[in-house]
Write a structure and sequence with these properties.
Helices cover about 75% and strands about 0% of the residues. It contains 13 helices and no strands. The longest helix has about 35 residues. The protein is globular. The two termini are about 30 Å apart. The C terminus is likely disordered.
C-alpha cells in the first residue's frame, strides 16, 4: 500500500514537472503580450506587469488602413487555406498509399516506403533550390497552390508512415470476410479499414494540420505578397530592423496558436475514445 502511494506521488510529481515545462513558455508568451516594452527589456526581468497593455491586440485586430490588422487577417486566411488544402490532399494520397503498402505485396515495397521516409528526413534547406526552380517553372511562386504542393511533399511521407503502420495492426480477416460477402477491395477499405482506423486517421490529420500550419521556411522563401504569406511569415515581420516589439510578436503568436489548439482539442476526444473502444474490443 505504501509502495503504491509512493509510486502515485512520483507519477503525479513527474506529470506536474512536465506540464510546467510545457506550459511555461506559453504562459510567458501571454504575459509578454500584455506587458509594456519597457518591462520586457528591464534587467532584472520582471515576471508580472504593473498594468495590462491590450494595445497590441487592438493593433492586430484593427481594420485601419496602414495598420498590421489587414495583413494579419489575410495571412490567417492564407494559413487556413494552405493547411486545410494540404491535409485534404495528403490524407487522400496517404490513405490510399498506406493501404497499398500495408496490404499489397509487390516488388521493392519496403524500399519504396523507406525512400518516402528518407525524403521526409531530409533537411528543408537541401530541397529549397529544387523546389524553388520547380515552382518558378510552373508559375506557382507566391501562390497558395504552390505552398500546398510544397507542404504536401513534406506531409505525405509522414502520413504514409503513420497510417501504413496503423493499417498493419488491423486484422486481415475482417477484410477477407467482407471480400467473401462480395465487397471489393476498395469497398473493404472504406467500409472496414477506415472505420476501424479512425484513431490513427484523426491523429494523422492533427499532425498534418500542425505541420502545414507551422511551416515557415518555404513560406518565407516562396511568398512575397499578402496574397500568399502565411501567419509565421507575417509574425516574423513584426520584428523591425533596429528594434523589436516582443510583446507584439507574442500577441501574434497567441492568436496564431488558437486554431491549432482548437483542432487538437476537437480531435483529441475522437482519438482517445477510438483508442479506448479499440482496447475494449481487443
Amino acid at each position: 500500500m505504501r509502495r503504491a502511494r509512493r509510486y502515485s506521488i512520483l507519477v503525479h510529481a513527474g506529470a506536474g514537472i512536465v506540464s510546467i515545462a510545457i506550459l511555461a513558455p506559453f504562459v510567458w508568451m501571454i504575459i509578454a503580450s500584455v506587458s509594456s516594452q519597457r518591462m520586457l527589456i528591464t534587467t532584472p526581468l520582471r515576471w508580472l506587469p504593473d498594468k495590462l497593455y491590450l494595445d497590441r491586440y487592438t493593433q492586430i485586430l484593427s481594420s485601419d488602413e496602414g495598420s498590421i490588422g489587414p495583413g494579419f487577417r489575410a495571412a490567417l486566411v492564407n494559413s487556413t487555406v494552405v493547411a486545410v488544402g494540404t491535409v485534404a490532399i495528403s490524407m487522400v494520397v496517404g490513405i490510399l498509399g498506406a493501404y497499398a503498402f500495408a496490404r499489397l505485396r509487390f516488388k521493392f515495397r519496403r524500399s519504396v516506403l523507406a525512400m518516402f521516409l528518407v525524403t521526409y528526413m531530409l533537411p528543408q534547406v537541401a530541397l529549397l533550390i529544387p523546389l524553388y526552380l520547380i515552382l518558378s517553372s510552373l508559375g506557382l511562386l507566391d501562390t497558395k497552390i504552390g505552398l500546398i504542393l510544397v507542404d504536401c511533399a513534406l506531409v505525405i511521407p509522414f502520413v504514409l508512415w503513420i497510417l501504413s503502420n496503423y493499417f498493419l495492426t488491423i486484422p486481415v480477416e475482417l477484410e477477407e470476410a467482407a471480400r467473401i460477402d462480395g465487397t471489393s477491395r476498395l469497398g473493404a477499405l472504406f467500409r472496414i479499414v477506415l472505420p476501424t482506423a479512425r484513431p490513427g486517421i484523426f491523429a494523422a490529420i492533427m499532425f498534418a494540420f500542425l505541420l502545414a500550419w507551422d511551416e515557415f521556411m518555404y513560406a518565407l522563401i516562396f511568398t512575397s505578397s499578402s496574397a500568399a504569406k502565411t501567419l509565421p511569415v507575417v509574425i516574423s515581420e513584426f520584428a523591425g530592423r533596429y528594434t523589436t516589439d516582443f510583446g507584439l510578436v507574442a500577441a501574434g503568436g497567441i492568436l496564431a496558436a488558437l486554431p491549432p489548439i482548437v483542432v487538437a482539442v476537437a480531435f483529441q476526444r475522437y482519438v482517445v475514445s477510438g483508442m479506448a473502444a479499440g482496447g475494449v474490443k481487443g
